[in-house]
User: Fold this.
Amino acid sequence: MNESFLHFLWQFQNFDKTNLQTTDREVVEVNKVGRLNFDSGADFQDARIIIDEVVWAGSVEIHIKSSDWDMHKHQFDASYQNVILHVVWEDDKPILRKDGTKIPTITLCERADKNLLQKYHAMMQSKAEMPCQNQFMEVDDIKKLSMLDKVLMKRLQDKSLIVNQFLQENKQDWEETTYQILAKNFGFKLNAEPFLSLSKNLPLKILQKHRDNLGQIEALIFGVAGFLQNDNNEIEWDDYRKNLRKEFQFLASKYQLHDKVLGQHEWKYLRLRPANFPTVRLAQFAKFIHQNANLFSVLIHLDKVKSLAKILKVKQSDYWIEHYVFGKKSEGKVPTLGNSSVENVVINTVVPLLVAYANQKDNRDYLEKAIGLLEEIAAEENNITKHWQSMGLKIKTAFDSQASIEWYNHFCLTKKCLECNVGVDILRKND
Assistant:
């Protein structure tokens, strides 16, 4: 037994309510179960319970054993003093409020449907990748769509919290925050952390002072990234790299950047296609900074993926059109940022920024814009989305794929079936 199942029983009143009484034989009538609370305080807020014909308004607390109340020290917490009913699986101890009055208690162990309990245990013990996958096709599409909406909003809000953390560190500077999140995204998975470190060691305000000079921006970026440090092969350096280092030495002294330089070992190349090498991404990032004065304004005011793609698909400088790495000319032209990379930036940079800004300004238009962008982008293909599709879930856009990823990671992997619209529907069928 766990509290989640008891929450489910209480929320949907899935237990025998015939002659419902407290442990002291007081007649109980549930007028309003209350609102499930995910924050601190009792489990269900704003409940309305009639006990021996007296109407009580307040909170309902759920426990497996009544003694859990004392174990959790609720008697000392002011937020639990308005509890009007204690719902437990097993009553093993009378529970008192701080003022010494007894809290009315009802038990569910003899009232719960045993078949329902067996269905729940079977779901929890399932070895399938998704606990409900054998019954998933039986659930109405409207339940699945409502769950997709629910989990997408959770994913967007979680990502906006990350933006808020950056904002707090940057003293509410949206431009610096955008720059850092964009930098991290330009590193994609493998080089996200060194890219982020670069952006924190090299503030945007420094780059903006040299925005009209691409060479100086490249010198600063490649310099702080660690690619202009002395090494054993320095004699083989070409003129471009030597000029960058000369420029960086001057700028590093000016802005006190010498102790901010990363090590080349921090950048990863393993299993990357040459077009995704960190050197190429750094060159593209430098060109993007060179071409866009106000990153935040540019990214959040464009409401179409095509418009964002136009500014994100920057053509790196001439040297990096012909090189994947320093000193070695490529056989063909080095491509610019591809469509999938642009979509990745939109999903992981632009959309979270829009949601965070919508929350801060209490303006739903920016949230709608974020959702609209996701609906423009084709669904990502990965093992999670493929598995959902094999179960009959329609995944057409990034809205669907982002939601399905969150659904799987947050609910299926952790077996939070009782917080899932589909899981609840399966359990309640024929109960």
User: Anything to note?
Assistant: Residues 141-169 form the longest helix (29 residues).
